[in-house]
Amino acid sequence: MIKLEVLLLPTFLLSAARRSVTNTIQKGDTLVSKMANLALLDHTLLLQ
Question: Residue 32: which of 24, 43, 21 has the closest Cα?
Fold first, then answer.
């Protein structure tokens, strides 16, 4: 029984870490895309 728990713990930690990394990446992606959209908008306004 204890062996099973020891085997499950790293899997649980890995999935939790992966989830937090995914959340961070998604937040970063929205920030980056907002900045990219603003830069694109500035560029478009400069071209006019």
Answer: 24
pTM value?
0.48
Exposed, middle or buried, 3 (CB in 10 Å: 0-12/13-18/19+)?
A: exposed
Low-confidence ranges of the chain (pLDDT < 50): none
Alpha-carbon distance values, 8 to 21, 24, 26, 37 (Å): 20, 24, 27, 43
Q: How far apart are CA 39 and CA 28, in angstroms?
A: 16
Residue 29 backbone phi and psi in degrees, to 5: -60, -45
Lookup result for tokens 């478009």: 44
Q: Mean pLDDT score of the chain, rounded to an integer?
A: 83
